[in-house]
Amino acid sequence: MNSAVNLQDLKILIVDDLVEARSALKSMLGMLGANQLDTATDGREAMELILENDYDMVFADYNLGKGKDGQQILEEARYSNRLKATASFIMVTGENAVDRVMGALEYDPDAYVTKPFTLSILRERLNRLWVLKSILHPVNQAIDLDEIDWAIELATQVLEDNPRLLLPISRILGKLCMRQERYEDAMQAYGQVLDSRGASWARLGQAVCFYFMGDKEKAVQLIHETLVDHPMYVQCHDWLAKILMDEGKMEEAQKELQTAVNISPRAVLRQMELGKLALENGDVDVARDAFEQAMRLGRYSCYKSSSTYIQFVQAAQLNLDDSNSRDSRTLCSKALRALDEMKQEYSGQLNVIFDANIAETNTFKITANEDRARSSADKAEGVLARIKEPTGEQQLQLTAAFVDTGQKEKAQGMMETLRDKNLQSDLLARLDSLESKLSNMNMREFSAALNEEGVGHYEKGELNEAIKAFDKATRYEEAGISVLLNAIQAKISYMEREEIDVIQLKDCYKLLRRIGSIGRLDERHERFVRLKTTCERLRRSAGL
Which structural domains are found in the chain, ordered by start? Predict the structure, then answer.
């Protein structure tokens, strides 16, 4: 247990954006026997080296300026399986902000060294790590070979030989047993720790085991007990959220995730999960903020996803309108910037660019920018033409974009193409809905044309012809309020000029009932009231 660290022949990487810090650490490690040292100035260079080399030890500063930080290097090294279990990752940081410290610790580095440190502090920290890694070397070798059951047997034997290492070995045993779905064995490993001391991670480990064994009530009980002692234990809130979602308690689950995000806001996956859950709960502001954070944090993360950009834009669209208000303009600009960034980040991926253009079309449509909406739909059409085998979903999205931008012939052509395909029932239902929408648009346009014809006759004093045109226009349910008011106006003008016609008067009342009411702030309200009053006067004059 007292053997000194031996860095000779170990392949070591130092990552720090400050040349003085890199040189100082390199010098210290050299004094401790290191003779194979690589350095990187940022996260991008670090990951290139990690992907090319098998390092035994990585020292990464947390704050590396622009680009990947130390936490994201650790994330990606684990994600890409380029950090062996036998290797060590040491986080080096001068950060003391809670969110950054929690973010770093969440990904469980092998050691954590706070700047400034001396050679003696570094030696002492590495000695402890070296002793533990040496004892666990056969276990970690088995893990690297993906021989997990063998690793469990070796870890059990190592614990028998080294009972003073109960905590670190039991933690590894618990994780390995859960990985193999050996929950009873994992419970036993965590129980050994809890028999001697109240380790929060062991209690949470047992709670997770109870969850997978079907006893969610016991799992929740243990998690709450853990939070009493350690309210900042972020993974407890994650698990409570998961259990609450299983039970359909979505709003309570969201609160737990929000608590977790407040404690440790730099985890991309947690922000994504919060965004999805908040959107499902109709909490648009929380969803939009979570997706925005996920976009920002994900720029240099291995968990970066094009779907996060789309989800942010979709959440933003729910608060957009055509009012041209300052808030709407600001939010629209944010959405469009996100889509521009998405196109740049995924410039070679046609499916992603297509999604961005469709989202852009919808954004412009909501904000009543018809020309730019049509231009974005045409861009989406060009991208789809370059996709070798477009999906039915993509073709439906483009069809909807054509319908929304008034490109009826293109929409009709896409619909005919889709009808020739063997679409699934849900896609077929959406196609039927789009065809109905297009049909209604055609009827509205036809009704508008008849209304225009009626207005022309009315202005020339040709009241009979005007009434005929308006009667045709109002036969369609799609006829708007203005068309109905015009029809009433023509009939009233005819009766005031010629004679009261009971049939025409009854038609006026039918049209008034179709309108129902018009709000006082509507510019058509005064005209509506005037026509309604005139109809009442004509009805009394006719003795009805």
Answer: 11-135 (3.40.50.2300), 305-421 (no CATH), 439-541 (1.25.40)
Global pTM exceeds 0.70? yes
Cβ–Cβ < 8 Å for 47, 41: no
Cα–Cα nearest to 8, from 57, 77, 59, 60:
57
Q: Is the dihedral of CA 477, 480, 484, 486 positive or negative?
A: negative
> What are the C-alpha distances in Å from 410 to residues 191, 317, 378?
66, 25, 10
Q: Contact 39/15 with Cβ under 8 angstroms?
A: yes
Average pLDDT over residues 364-382: 96
**Which two three-digit tokens encode residue 267?**
């985890």
Q: Cα 154 from chain centroid?
A: 41
Pairing of strands 36-40, 57-61: unpaired
Can you tell me the distance from the alpha carbon of 211 to that of 167, in angstroms, rounded to the nearest whole number? 22
**Contact criterion met (CB below 8 Å) for 427 and 436:** no
What Cα–Cα distance (Å) separates residue 198 from each residue in 110, 172, 226? 22, 17, 9
Q: How far apart are CA 65 and CA 17, in angstroms?
A: 7
Predicted confidence at residue 98, as pLDDT, reads 47
Which one, of 93, 102, 101, lies nearest residue 16 by Cα? 93
DSSP structure class, residue 416:
H
Q: How many CA atoms lie within 13 A of 178 on its CB side?
A: 22
Q: Measured between alpha carbons, how far is 268 from 189 in angstroms, rounded to an integer?
A: 31
Crossing angle of helices 98-106/234-246, nearest 10°? Answer: 70
408-436: pLDDT as tens digits: 889 989 999 998 888 889 999 999 999 98
Run of H or E including 445: helix 425-459
* Beta bridge mates, 91: 60, 112
| Residues in Cβ contact with 133 at an 8 Å cutoff, skipping those fewer than 6 apart | 86, 88, 110, 140
pLDDT tens digits, one per residue of 330-372: 999 999 999 999 999 999 899 999 999 999 999 999 999 999 9
In angstroms, how far is the first alpha carbon of the chain from the final one? 108
* Structure-block tokens of residue 126: 């590495």
- Which pairing describes strands 11-15 and 36-40: parallel, antiparallel, or unpaired? parallel
Can you tell me which residue has the tokens 């789309």?
310
Average pLDDT over residues 14-38: 95
DSSP code per residue over 188-253: HHHHHHHTTS--HHHHHHHHHHHHHTT-HHHHHHHHHHHHHH-TT-HHHHHHHHHHHHHTT-HHHH
Ramachandran bin of 287, using left for φ above 0, alpha for ψ from -120 to 50, beta for the remaining angles: alpha
> Coil, helix or strand for 254?
helix
Q: Are 476 and 485 in contact (CB under 8 A)?
A: no
